[in-house]
Amino acid sequence: MPAAASEPKKFAYRVKSWSKYNESLLCRGDITLWFSDEVIDAWEHDNAEERAGHPFVYSVLAIETLLLVRELFRLSYRQTEGFGRALAKLMNADVPIPDYTSLQKRAAKLGVSIDIEDLNGPVEVVADSTGLKVFGDGEWKAKKHGAGKRRTWRKLHLAVDPSTHLILAESLTDSGATDASQVEPLLEKVEQPVETFYGDGAYDGWAVRDYLKGESIHQIIPPRQNAVIKQHGNSSKEPLERDECVRQIRRDGKKSWKQSIGHHRRSLAETAMSRMKTNFGDRLKNRTLPNQATEVALRCKLLNHFVLLGMPLFVWG
Hints:
- By secondary structure, this protein is α/β, with parallel strands linked by helices.
- 41% of the residues lie in helices and 14% in strands.
- The chain folds into two domains: 18-107, no CATH class; 123-284, Nucleotidyltransferase, domain 5, CATH 3.30.420.
- It has helices at 18-28, 37-41, 60-72, 77-91, 100-107, 139-145, 183-189, 206-214, 241-252, 254-261, 267-280, 289-309, and strands spanning 13-15, 123-135, 152-160, 167-174, 194-198, 218-220, 314-316.
- The mean pLDDT is 84.
């Protein structure tokens, strides 16, 4: 009998550095915590600037440290105060722990920075947005009886470095804000020079493209399905990037255009969103936008720390 034809080899992504990556995942769950000497020495506020009212007691570093613990373990403000007391007692650290109302008030004006010191030189940026729930009916009730009137959510916008998976900038808005409106605010927060911007069709607007062109940032954004050429070939002006994309899509097809231009890297922003919701959930604990903005910034800071602990090295084969 003739030999059976060999089945084609199935290719898939494999983790090449599993041992190292597994150790980094274990470190994410390490609950060995303490207040470092640097934090304890800077625990009290120096009140260098004059302000009306009672002077601050706790430094920004002290408040941020406790709020990071709150996000890491998904605690309420009261539980965070109790956690801080217990930790100070275990360490025999003579530091006062702010009460839960102080934590809430200071969180609204904290201004968390997620700057990455290890990044040097120009970077690429992939951007996307996702929704985070605030309050309202749960998924089961909404599916069974329909969504109620009090379902409220916020929109989280992220700018991610596709090479390192680090979050370079974040922005939290109400649900009505468009993705395109947050491009300039996001890129202004990125400390490193940006050379390429990746986005989906929601960023295809002339305001966004003109801003990117003015900043000399290469734009990889798919034109909308009904896109038309704005500046035809008989013009003496320099061809527009969007028009060149439209011409290539008409000639070769959208799939071929995406492959040739590397548009698939944009999906890494969705990966960052998934990582965010896996680690911290899809709901915000605070009810006011200023506190929610601090909450999201702290989550991004923690997520960057997780990434720096180690990421998987994938190979195709």
